[in-house]
Amino acid sequence: MTVSCKDGLCVDVGCGPGQSTELFCPHFRKVVGTDISETQIGIARAACTAKNVSFEVSNAESLPFDDGTVALVSTVNALHWFRWDAFFAEVRRVLVDGGVFCPSLFRLRAVAEPGLEDCLEEFRYQEFKGYLTAQHDFWTYGYENTDVPFSDVRKKDFVVNEMTTLSAVLACVRTWSFVIRMEEKEPERARQVLERLETRIRSKLGKPGEDDPEVQVAYRASYILCRK
């Protein structure tokens, strides 16, 4: 069965500040991002420029859409935080027949520079061991062990290398949930840990005269495509 996208509704669940939501704009008549956080929805609304996108405060297990009205349900970097039985039931309820469900992960996995290949993994497991939860295993293993109760299931996992800046790497690291929790509970320790990470990367890059040196990084992407 072919599902029309141009005339359809796309829902991005757990959209956060909305960066992923707007990517669907050219392909659907209407796109709605949902998130349980009023703060994140406020940020998304303020930043949005697309006319066919809107944002709603909603938890993933109770979506504000009628039965059989959604062509695509997407969730980016969020599935591991949901209650799966309830969420999957909601996905099935709101999707049209043949509609698509696509959970995906896109995460910074490594600094792809000599001597720094393992620094982010060491950083996570040595400095933040007490803040890691079972949900963080998805950042290591992706969706290879994830079963979804839908049909025509396809999975893919791949790595993308690209150039960015040191400041962008550090900004990304500061969005990680375990870093945020340490900053809330132990702000001074978190500051010192992040400072050590920056110092380590700078020392290996060997670019002492550059305030914000370029650095090669590796992103790992994982997704599942399946149908109702």
TrEMBL record:
GO terms for biological process: methylation. Residues 11-101 form the Methyltransferase type domain. One of its GO terms (molecular function) is S-adenosylmethionine-dependent methyltransferase activity. This is Methyltransferase. Gene3D superfamilies: Vaccinia Virus protein VP39. InterPro entries: Diverse_substrate_MTase, Methyltransf_11, SAM-dependent_MTases_sf. Belongs to the methyltransferase superfamily. SUPFAM superfamilies: S-adenosyl-L-methionine-dependent methyltransferases. It comes from Rhipicephalus appendiculatus (Brown ear tick). PANTHER family: METHYLTRANSF_11 DOMAIN-CONTAINING PROTEIN, METHYLTRANSFERASE TYPE 11 DOMAIN-CONTAINING PROTEIN. Keywords: Methyltransferase, Transferase. Transmembrane segments: none annotated. Pfam families: Methyltransf_11.
